[in-house]
Amino acid sequence: MKQIRIKKILKITGIVVLIMVILIAGCIYGLWHNEISTLSSIEMLRDRNDEHSDGAIYRMNVKGDFYLDDFVEQGGVSNDGELIQFVTDHLTKGIIPIHMSAPEIGCSSFSAKTKDGDMLFARNYDFSKTNTMLVFTEKNKGRHASISTVDLQFLGIDVDQNMNGLMDKVISLASTYAPLDGINDAGVSCGIYMTYQGGDKTIATDQNTDKPDFTSTTLLRLILDYADSVEEAVEIASSYDLHDSASTSYHYMVADSTGKSAILEWTGKNDASDNDGSQRTLKVIYNDQDEYIGKKEANSDYQVVTNFVLQPGYYEASNIKEKKGTDRYDRIYEELEKRNGIVADENEAMNILSIVGRRSWNNDDKNSLTVHSVVYNLTDKTVTWVGNENYSDPDAVYTFSLE
C-alpha cells in the first residue's frame, strides 16, 4: 500500500510539473513567439575571411511588426539611450540589455537608369572590418516589406569573431532599428551617410521643436516601412525632429521607381558657424531641381552623394578641406557622365561602385574597407549585394527579390 501511495504521489507530481512546464512554455511562446521565429531564421551566408579583413555575413527574416507602431505612437525617441531602452523593453522584455552606437563611416551612393528603363539606387558602405546582417521584414498592417543592411558592431557584437551563441542572436533582434540602407516593396530606397558637420569637432543634429523625434537609423526605418515615394519619405523626415546618433552628423539619399531622387540635409548657415545642432533645418535637393548646386548636377537626372554637404555656399574657401569624399563624388560622376546616367544593368552599376572600393581606392579618410556594395533595382524590387569587395567571386554575389 505504501509503494502504491508513493507511486501515486510521484505520478501526480509528474503531472503537475508537466503542466507547469507547458504553462511556462506557453507564456514564453505568447510573449516571444515572433522573436523566437525570427531567431530561428538566422543563418550565415558567408564565413569571415580574416586575411581579406572580411567579417561574416548573416541573414535574418523578421517575423511580426517588431513594435514599430508602438515606437511611432509614443513619438519616437530623442537620443540613443531612449532607443536602447525601447528596444530592450520591447524586443527582450527588459531581460537582456542591448547596446547601440554609430561610429564615423564613409560611404558613396548614386542613382542611375538601366538601358531597359529600370531605376537603380547603388551604395558602398565604407568602414572597417565588421560582421553584417541582411534583414528581411514582412508586409504588416499597412507597412511595407523591406530588405536592409545592418552593421552588427553597432549593436555591440564583436567584430573579431562570428556571432556566438544565443546571446548574440538575441542582441541582433535590434537590427530592425539600425539599417544603413534598404529597399521596400513600393520601390523606395534610402541610405545614410556621414557629413562631418561642425568644423574641427563634428556636431550632431539635435533639433528641439514640438515635433515627435527620431534618431539617425530610425528615420531610415520609418521611410522603408511607411513611404510609397520620395515625396512621402520627405514628408516623414519633415514631420520629426532629427537627433543624430553618437555625436555625429548625417545626410540621406532617397529614390523611388519613378526616377525621382532626393538628398536630405540638415544644416545651419555655413560650415564655419554650423556648431549648434538644434538650429539646423531640413533642406531637400531633388534630382530634377538640383541645378543650383552645380553645373554637372544641372545637366543630369541622376544624383551622387558621399560625405560632404551639397548645399551651395555651405563651405567657406578656407574650409574646403572639410568636404570629405569629394574624390569619390567626382570619380562616380565621371563614370556616370560617360554613360549619360544610363548603365547596362545592375552589374555595370556594381562595377562603378567597385572603382571606388576602399581596398583599392586612395583613401581620403581613415575608413579603409568597403564592407558592402549593393544595387537596388527600384523597378523590379530586387537586390544585388556583394560583401567586402569580392566582386569577382560569384559565390559572394547575392540576389534577392521582394516580389
Automatic annotation (TrEMBL):
UniProt keyword annotations, A-Z: Hydrolase, Membrane, Transmembrane, Transmembrane helix
Stored SUPFAM superfamilies: N-terminal nucleophile aminohydrolases (Ntn hydrolases)
Every Choloylglycine hydrolase/NAAA C-terminal domain range: 107-266
Single GO MF annotation: hydrolase activity
Pfam families with a match to the protein in the record: CBAH (PF02275)
Residue ranges of the TM segments: 12-32
Family statement drawn from the similarity comment of this UniProt entry: Belongs to the peptidase C59 family.
UniProt-recorded name of the protein: Choloylglycine hydrolase/NAAA C-terminal domain-containing protein
